[in-house]
Structure formats: C-alpha cells, structure tokens
Amino acid sequence: MKVLYVSSEALPFAASGGLADVAGSLPQALKNRKVNCRVVMPLYGTISDEMRASMTFITSIMVPVSWRRQYCGVFEAKAGGVVYYLIDNEYYFKRNTLYGHYDDGERFAFFSRAVLEILPYIDFKPDIIHCNDWQSALVPVYYSTMYANREGYTGIKTVLTIHNIQYQGIYGKEILGDVFGIGEENSSLLEFGDCINLMKGGIECSNRVTTVSNTYAGEILDPWFSHGLHPILKERSYKLSGILNGIDVKNYDPETDNNIFANYNAKDFSGKYKNKAALQEIFGLPVREDVPVIGIVSRLVAHKGFDLIKKIMWELLDSSDMQLVVLGSGDWEYEAFFKEIAAAFPSKVGLRVGFIPDLARKIYAGSDLFLMPSKSEPCGLSQMVALRYGTIPIVRETGGLKDTITDSGDGKGNGFTFKSYDAYDMLDAIRRALSAYSDKKKWNTLVTRALKCDNSWGRSAREYIRLYESM
Asked: Does residue 257 fall inside a structural domain?
C-alpha cells in the first residue's frame, strides 16, 4: 500500500504545533508496518541550511494557481527512514513564520495543486492521499474536480484529518475563481454561508474524514464544539471516524531520557523522586517528598481551562499542602494571575513564563500530578507524555483527554477526571488526587499503572491501516 501524507508542517523540518509531531511520527509508524508512506510539505524559509544541504533536487515544474502559473521546485529528503518531498516556491514560503499571512489562502492553494501536479515526477502513485487540516483540504477538492479522470491519477482515495476544527480556512466568495481556481459549477463544494470554507470543501470531497480522537469525532457533531460546521458533518457522518494520536515513546522515555535528572522505569521509579527534588530546587520551592507537586505545561489561554484555574486556585493553595509549577505563556490575564499567586505563595508556586522544552521535560518527570482542565481538546499529547513519565493527569472529560484518561476512583484508572466545565468540579478532582497521594501504597500502584500505559504510535498506525484497507 502506498500513502502520500500531506501536511503543512512536519518534524524535523518545520513545526508550529501538534500537527508537526503527528506528521513526523505517524509516517514512521506506518513504514514500520510495511506501508510505503511518504510525506509532502512546503519548503519553508525557516528550515535550516544544514537540513537543506541534505536535500536532493528532483525537478522543477510550473503549477497552475487559477490563472497564474507558479514555479514549483521539488526536493527530496529522508528522516527516520521516511521519504519527504518539499515543495519550493520562495514567493509563498520564504517567510519568517509558517502561517498568519494575508495570502495564506493562495499559498496553500498553490501547495495543494502542487501536491497533485508533482505525482508524475516523483515516480510514486499513491493508493491513498492523506491530508491534514484546512491547509491541505483543497487537495481532495482539486482531485475530485480536476484530476480523478486524468491518465495516471485514477483510483486514488483521499482522507482528511481534522486536528482542530476551530481553524477552517474561511475566505470571501469573491476570490473563489481568482485565487482558488474553482468554477461556478463546483462552487457549492466550498460555499458555506456567505463565505468559502476550505475545510468544508475537504469534508465534501474526501472519501473519509477522521479526527484525532474518537470522542472528538462525536463532539464536532455538536454546535458547542463544531465552530459552525456541524450541519455538513452530520450530513457526511458516514465518512467520519476518530483515531487517537500517539506519542513518540522512544523520545519520551524516562528510562533513557537525557533531559531529566535521573532515569527510571515501571519496575523501579525511585529516580522519579530525584527528579522531583531537582524540580523543586529549580523553581525555588522547599524540597519535600511528602508534598504533592502539580505541574502545568500549556498555553495560558481560557480555551485550556485557565478561567477555571483562576477561579479556585487561591482557595486551593490556602487550604492544601501542595506545590504548583507552571510553564507557559499566553494571555496577559493569566500570565499576570500566575505571577500574582507566585508572589503570594512563594513556598508553594513556581512560575516560568515562556516555553522551554528542556524544562517542560523536567516538569513531566518531576511532578506528581499534571493538570489539564481544557474546555475542548481534540486529542492532547501532554496527558500521554505525563503518563509516560508516571505523572498522574487531572483532566476534564473531553476529546482525547476522555479517551486516554480514566478516573482511578474504581481502583483501575490512570488519573482523575471531571465532566462538567465547572471550577468546583475541577477542584473536587484535584482534592481527590491530593488525598490519593497520601496513601503511598495505592499511589505507587497508580504510578506503575501510568508508566505501563501504551500510547505509542504503533496502536494508532494499526487503526489507520485498517481505515486505508477499508477504502
């Protein structure tokens, strides 16, 4: 089976978020299961000269973008044993950031056409083209309307994965023909309300639509989560399924990780306590093994549940023997809040504003608990990383958080959960977690269970293969 994985970002070349992690890991997991999976992505200006030096130039062609014809260079590289094709056009991609430009619609229309135009030149006709988010949602639109009956293109199936339905690629109708090159006869595929919606077009034209967790696949049929797309998703629900993302268990491995202070595993996690002591020192907190440490690594925005945290944290810190370590940046309101409580409770709260990957790893390894009270979370990776390091998540039951974390109140779960988006329901879950920490025998059993959880990409790859085969 041949799969062409289309992504607007992928590690190790360019990343702005979780999509890059997926595009860097899932193709490797598929390759390990005898799927010939290759990746295509833009050649951004942010990609280092060192990485560029390892690329091989294949060819250059001209790609139609409505009435324009634009240069397209095709480069090949390998990473993790996977072949990557990088699409070069300096006008579109030689910029300091991946997204957020006035002409993003045109940039990714070019990219989507280029994905299809390069196929005769790379000697790789895929059985499946797997697209991701709005940036490549035009690929199934262009394929079904322009390429499906061309010689050399017939029989290809398309998949669109929605990583976060909040971002849909919405533009004015006036540029449908001039930028996207879609004629009136096919305009209904992209029209949604008074706009053009690229995600909607991808949903209409792809053979299958997936999301990054089973629960999220159900949630996006609800107006609360869908950001307006629930009508089309309900009409096309027969295409829709959810496959949970995984994590790179070799990269996140407490037994071999050089970024943490002491290594450990499920059989002997005494090293975790050394990480905890070092973490407390980093944040200037009293070094105490008997006090539970709650870790937070996140963007500090309301969407991630920080409005709930702000509502109850003073009360929690006043009434509980605990410590809190926070790493993140975001809205001024929440950055100021954490600075305020760090000043008010210097022996209980440690804060670093920003994102420091090395410190994030130390928080995963050194904390006892990890707090993720998200309003919505399509998949979430942090809770899986926390489990990998034996740190017990406290989460709201939404999206991938619900699919990966079950409440340990029954003696079988791997974390602490709450259902309603309510500050005091969250507070109850936190207090139950703090209470559980005081019973060392039961706590050690819970940590062992967390360390043994399997959230590897292998499990996800098997589900994708079943999806591909069904097509």
From this structure: no
Number of domains in the chain: 2
pLDDT in tens, 41-72: 999 999 999 999 999 999 999 999 999 999 99
Asked if residue 12 has a cis previous peptide bond (ω within 30° of 0), the answer is yes
| Confidence at 410, pLDDT banded by 50, 70, 90 | confident
Task: Please tell me whether residues 155 and 285 are part of one structural domain.
Answer: no
Beta bridge partners of 37: 3
Q: Please, which residues have CB within 8 angstroms of residue 319's CB and are 6 or more apart in sequence?
A: none
CA dist list (Å): 187 to 183, 192, 222: 6, 10, 26
Q: CATH number of the domain that 407 lies in?
A: 3.40.50.2000
The sheet carrying 369-372 orders its strands as 349-353, 323-330, 293-300, 369-372, 392-396, 416-418
pLDDT digits (tens, 9 = 90+) for 161-207: 999 999 999 999 999 999 999 999 999 999 999 999 999 999 999 99
In a domain, 263, yes or no: no
Q: 233 is in which domain, residue-wise?
A: 2-246+458-470
* Residue among 8, 29, 65 at smallest CA distance from 454: 29
Q: What's the pLDDT at 18?
A: 85
CA pair distance 317, 311, nearest whole angstrom: 12
